[in-house]
Amino acid sequence: MLARLKTLGPGLIVMAAFMGPGSVTTASVAGADYGFVVLWSVVFATVATIILQEMAARLGIVSREGLGEALRTTFQHPVVKVLMALLVLLAIGVGGFSFSTGNVTGSSQGMTILTGIPSEVTIPVTFAIVFSLLFIGRYKVLERVLIGLVILMSITFVITAVMVRPDVGEMLKGLVVPSVPAGSLITLIGLIGSAVVPYNLFLHSSSVQEKWPRSMPTDQALSEARTDTWFSITIGGLVTAAILATGAAAFFGTGDRIEDAVDMATQLEPVLGTAAEVFFGLGFMAAGLTSAITAPLAAAFATTGVLGWDRDLRSWKFRAVWIVVLAGGAILAITNADPVALILVTQYAAGLSLPVLAIFLIVVMNRRDMLGEYVNGPLSNVLGALVVLGVSALGALQIFGVV
Q1: Residues 6 or more apart from 364 whose CB is under 8 A from it?
Q2: Which of 114, 35, 122, 37 has the alpha carbon at shortest distance from 339?
Q3: Rounded-to-integer distance, Cα 208 and Cα 65, Å
Q4: How many Å apart are CA 26 and CA 282, to the nearest integer?
Q5: Terminal CA-to-CA distance of the chain, rounded, Å?
Q6: Among the ranges 38-42, 137-141, 160-164, which has the highest mean pLDDT value?
Q7: For residue range 307-360, what is the model confidence (pLDDT) as tens digits?
Q8: What does each C-alpha distance from 268 to 132, 250, 253, 333 come to in angstroms?
Q9: pTM for the whole thing?
Q10: How many CB atoms lie within 10 A of CB 231?
Q11: Beta strands, E only, 202-357
Q12: Residue with more model confidence, 87 or 362
């Protein structure tokens, strides 16, 4: 078992990417506004993430290409290829900027909660930390930093959930009985979009190649990658559920509104006392830093792959992409836009763009010329189609105002 844990890496990086301020804020708001009845969406999001990320990891290990490169060679017609590239770059570009803004904002808010230093100072500090780590361009360094932050974040949020003593019976009911309270569609799509992040498909398919080299037997690499994916994403789902349960136990029915991370920490004080700010500040800062690192990294993997550029972490084209995304996010963050509204809109946009990129992934995963015996089987295709239908249905309901 210990040997297996030592092989963890890319899956935890994916968890670090989706367990950012967006997940924390969206889950907290969902629990505060709707209680435990929306917990089922966390289960759906976790299973959907595992299904799609397993495909992305398999693609990277078998083909030695990221999703961006695979898409570039899959669509041969010039018009289709251009449209595909534009769709991917638009989704990743908008997502990268908006997620980066929320991540930098969230990390700086965590620092503010812990230190009292204003965001005008903590935002540049966050930018400097993330810039330095990405500029080093060493996968092993990034992996270790992200795993450490993930562990810190997970421990703080789980302890917080235990301390507020949620109703276990109501939690279990919310996990297994789907319910869509009036007005909750945007929040539900946000919860799903915060876990099944489109750019993580590009991040995962590229990062597995750094972890498991071509020299390793394919079956061994795939076995370790599946364990990594299942374990990491499940932990992420449990942490998200713990955050939602904290919001439900502490705020549901009280009439309190969550405006920002400081409010979340302050409103937990009656339950947790002075430990509230320490626990929530640490968790929120770690969540922000992990995602602030991975969002620009994923945007760089996706962009360089689709455009056929060098995917080397130290190449200047690769660096240029993440610098633009990170700097853009920091600039938007420092303009003091409403952080909770920004984060929720970002999660909503991600939830709506997911079906298109998921379909692209499934098309690629059925290329026998690229994957040979490791192409999707009938079960993988059916599960992937169900994920696409599920998120598409939620998006359609919201667009047409059915719920």
Answers
A1: 59, 67, 70, 71, 74, 370
A2: 122
A3: 10
A4: 18
A5: 46
A6: 38-42
A7: 888 878 888 899 999 999 888 888 878 876 565 565 556 556 665 667 888 888
A8: 34, 7, 15, 25
A9: 0.85
A10: 18
A11: none
A12: 362
